[in-house]
Design brief:
Layout lengths: L1 E6 L19 E2 L2 E2 H11 L4 E6 L3 H9 L7 E6 L5 H8 L8 E5 L2 E4 L2 H10 L4 E7 L7 E5 L5 E6 L10 E9 L15 H11 L4 E4 L4 E4 L3 H13 L14 E2 L5 E2 L4 E2 L3 E3 L4 E2 L4 E2 L3 E3 L4 E2 L4 E3 L1 E3 L4 E2 L4 E3 L2 E2 L4 E2 L4 E3 L1 E3 L4 E3 L2
Helix pairs in contact: 3-5
The structure holds guanosine-5'-diphosphate-alpha-D-mannose and magnesium ion (MG).
Magnesium ion binds next to loops.
Length: about 350
């Protein structure tokens, strides 16, 4: 089976995390989100992937061109100008001649993809949309469906109070290739605003699948932090770590001063140096090459690769993006620290 990732968005709401990095490449517990999703697909028997790119496309292409680990055939298709989610899918039509999967690239979830595809086939649907229940449906595509789980209406981001249901589009679809004929060629269009309503009007059979045990759209810095908290707590499962059984990962490869105190859950990348009397944890993710000076205190934070912190740096509820140099004595709470700026969480 093949899958398509929509990975060309600007990631505007995730700035400054996306200043130098497209949203699908943002690291979640040290691994780019898109790489996580692709590895998961491999485990489910998908063997060929198309990634539809636009914003900072080179970053995605370089990463997957040199990625020999996944063993997948990966095609990156770059749009000269954004085609929207509908136009992006249409632009990749030639790759798909059988039932296939489509994913938004900013989703972290635990979903049984085999059960999703089985449900699609059983219902003989043209399109199946994975749906999740949320408290604030107006931020998403809202789905109204009947007792047979057939979709009766799809409304992208309705005004608050005008939502017809609390079930929303999780950004994961099963498509039959014939559906692609409905999307206009070489034209900007939105799968959510233009094409789903059109398919319903033309009588295509659209079904929902409600089987995800965990789901989050990493569209804002708050949700980025929430995703890490959920992995630490165990509500989001990732294949490589289980913080319920092991509280600290990567400790053996790290150079940690004997007087430093590590309180799990903590995840360390490679080549980390922690100075004397530092206090690290709980709920801390430390990227490759991190250097912490004497007496640093870091809690509830995510630090990307190649960051250094001078002595007595105090970080809490913060994200530090790649390559930052934090001067001695700096204190940061609820801050997104990037080379260009120090911004409070909105
Ligand atoms: N190739 C390409 N070209 N990809 C695009 C483009 C484009 O012009 N525009 C957006 N994308 C990609 C983004 O990179 C992202 O992976 C996906 O399409 C969805 O775009 P977002 O910008 O993240 O949309 P959203 O979060 O506001 O809403 C979407 O996701 C919700 C679930 O998180 C919609 O699909 C909603 O209906 C859905 O509920
Ligand atoms: Mg999104």
């Amino acid at each position: 089976m093949k899958a398509l990732f929509l990975a060309g968005g600007m990631g505007t709401r995730l700035r400054p995390l996306t200043n130098h990095m497209p949203k699908p490449m943002v690291p979640v517990m040290g691994i780019p989100l898109l790489e996580r999703s692709i590895s998961e697909l491999k485990r489910c028997g998908v063997n060929e992937i198309v990634v539809s790119t636009c914003y900072q496309a080179g970053r995605i292409e370089q990463h997957f061109a040199s990625d020999t680990r996944s063993g997948m055939k990966i095609h990156c298709i770059c749009e000269e100008k954004p085609l929207g989610t509908g136009g992006a899918i249409k632009n990749c039509q030639k790759y798909f001649d059988d039932t296939f999967l489509i994913f938004n690239s900013d989703i972290l979830c635990n979903i049984d993809l085999k059960a999703l595809v089985a449900s699609h086939r059983e219902k003989k649907a043209d399109v199946t949309i994975a749906a999740v229940e949320v408290k604030n449906p107006s931020d998403y595509g809202v789905i109204e469906y009947d007792p047979e789980e057939t979709i009766v209406s799809f409304t992208e981001k309705p005004k608050p109070g005008e939502e017809k249901s609390r079930f929303i589009n999780a950004g994961i679809y099963v498509f039959e290739p014939r559906v692609l004929d409905v999307i206009p060629t070489e034209k900007e269009s939105s799968i959510e605003r233009d094409i789903f309503p059109l398919l319903l009007k033309q009588g295509y059979r659209m079904a929902v699948y409600r089987g995800s045990s965990y789901w989050i759209d990493i569209g804002t810095p708050q949700k980025y932090m929430q995703a890490h908290r959920d992995i630490f707590e165990g509500s989001c499962l990732v294949p490589e770590n289980n913080f319920k059984s092991d509280q600290v990962y990567g400790l053996s490869g790290a150079d940690i001063a004997p007087s430093a105190k590590i309180t799990g859950p903590v995840w360390f990348g490679k080549n980390v140096h922690i100075g004397a009397n530092a206090v690290i944890g709980p709920n801390v993710v430390i990227g490759d090459g991190f250097e912490a000076g004497r007496g640093c205190e870091i809690s509830n934070s995510v630090i990307w690769n190649n960051v250094s912190a001078g002595s007595r740096v105090d970080l809490d509820h913060s994200v530090v993006t790649a390559g930052c140099r934090i001067g001695s004595g700096v204190q940061c709470q609820n801050t997104i620290y990037s080379p260009e700026s120090k911004l409070p969480f909105a």
